[in-house]
Design brief:
This protein is of the alpha+beta class. It has a single domain (about 1-150), classed as Nuclear Transport Factor 2, Chain: A. It has helices spanning about 1-50, 55-60, 65-70, 75-85; strands at about 90-105, 110-120, 125-135, 140-145. A hairpin with a 2-residue loop joins strand 3 (about 125-135) and strand 4. The mean pLDDT is about 85.
Length: about 150
């Protein structure tokens, strides 16, 4: 009986240490992904919204977003004309969000990130919500949503 309890205890300890290792690895990778996705947002959102450049968005768009853009180019043109009413970007602040890792049956590991920031523009402020996806180690925009009280006028 003592030998049996020793074996069960050893297996239990092995499970506990394995789980702790996975949790530690997840926390380490999560912090790295959060840092890189936040840096990507801070570097690339201004490139798009400073001059409201459709070309800059397309360069940074994920394949899924690029497909939507290519299907509806006139809508993107109208959207950017409307957004340009905000004027030139003065600052990007309060960047908040995090990255997530999920596993799916069809795509294996999927790394995404969601962020919200406040943009101070020439003619008002706007909330900028974005969703990123990491493809082949590179972050890309999956969604970019901009809302402002200026558009309610």
């Amino acid at each position: 009986m003592k030998k049996f309890l020793s074996i069960v205890g050893g297996i239990f300890l092995l499970i506990v240490f394995t789980a702790a290792g996975f949790i530690g690895y997840g926390a380490y990778m999560g912090n790295r992904l959060d840092a890189s996705s936040r840096a990507y947002v801070e570097a690339n959102v201004p490139a798009i919204v400073s001059t409201w450049s459709k070309v800059e968005l397309q360069k940074r768009a994920s394949p899924e977003l690029r497909e939507i853009i290519n299907e509806h180019p006139a809508e993107l043109e109208r959207l950017f004309q409307k957004l340009s009413r905000l004027g030139v970007l003065k600052s990007l602040k309060d960047v908040k969000g995090e990255s997530n890792v999920s596993y799916t049956a069809d795509r294996d590991k999927v790394i995404t990130a969601s962020y919200v920031a406040t943009g101070k523009f020439e003619h008002g402020e706007a909330k900028i919500a974005m969703r990123l996806v990491q493809t082949s180690g590179q972050w890309q925009f999956l969604l970019l949503n901009i809302t402002s009280p200026l558009f309610l006028q």
